[in-house]
Amino acid sequence: MRAEERVTTSGPLRVAVLGGTQVGKSALTVRYLTKRYIGEYRSDTDMLYRCVLQVDGAPQPVEIMDTSASCQTTSHAHLQWAEAFVVVYAINDKQSYSQAANTLKELNERRPSASVLVLGNKSDLGHLREVEEVEARTLALNHSARFSELSTAESCEDVTDTLDSFMKEVKSQRGVATGNCSGNVSPKQRKMSVTRMLGSLIGRHSPPPQPITELIVLDKEERTKLVRSSRQI
Ligand SMILES: Nc1nc2c(ncn2[C@@H]2O[C@H](COP(=O)(O)OP(=O)(O)OP(=O)(O)O)[C@@H](O)[C@H]2O)c(=O)[nH]1
Q1: Which Gene3D superfamilies does the record associate with it (predicted)?
Q2: CA-to-CA dists, residue 78 to 13, 16, 63, 81, 106, angstroms
Q3: What is the rounded distance in angstroms from the CA atom of residue 65 to the CA atom of residue 138?
Q4: Which one of 72, 102, 126, 190 has the largest count of C-beta atoms within 10 Å of its C-beta?
């Protein structure tokens, strides 16, 4: 196993959401965690969501990193930190698909045992389609990855079903049913209540979101520290 493959086998499931710019990574993550669709997000930084989800019928601590698409290549930190990856492209954006293909190649080389889901988002924009489903499905198959095409905007159910079953696969690959959500996060990391964060996005009078325990906004330095501390587990 390569050094980059040495990930924790207990504790929270760690999933990184990767992909090109504006493909819907944040919309997908928030849709999955809160069931809500929110149109616009800040995009200059990584967001780390810590939560407890029902995975395969049992509570499971999970950390999902919604990465910022500011760099072309997948960052070393993301590759080391996560044990599973959701690689997102938009079906109406060929360039985002090429980027997803490069990411798959990189994952194949550096994290060959990781679970990977290739996700073609924005299927509601079929009239603007630039990526054929069969082509993307074949690419995923060639990299032993799962594949799904969906619309985060239009179908909460598809997002939930797809990511629930991916989480189940990640958990079963690990073979551990429990973990803890305490993690190893630098005290300097800015923590903000997700209720407050989402409250400002969706309005104060909306019902409270699903039980997300914590949202952490990571800058580059903080992300590096997180990876360093995750290696010490
Ligand atoms: N039509 C359509 N638009 C979507 C869908 N999902 C997301 N969007 C829109 O796509 C744009 C980008 O969404 P984000 O979630 O911010 O994308 P991102 O990949 O996190 O963006 P960056 O981090 O800035 O690269 C927003 O305007 C969303 O409203 C979808 O399923 N269909």
Answers
A1: P-loop containing nucleotide triphosphate hydrolases
A2: 14, 7, 12, 5, 12
A3: 26
A4: 102
Per-residue confidence (pLDDT) for residue 139, from 0 to 100 = 98
Best residue among 17, 18, 21, 25 to mutate for probing ligand 1's pocket (most ligand atoms within 8 Å of CB) is 25
Tokens of 40: 């616009």
Taking alpha carbons only, the member of 90, 189, 96 closest to residue 149 is 90
Global pTM reads 0.81
Give me ligand 1 centre to Cα 233, in Å: 34
For residue 21, give the ligand 1 atom closest to its CA: 25
ipTM for the complex?
Answer: 0.99
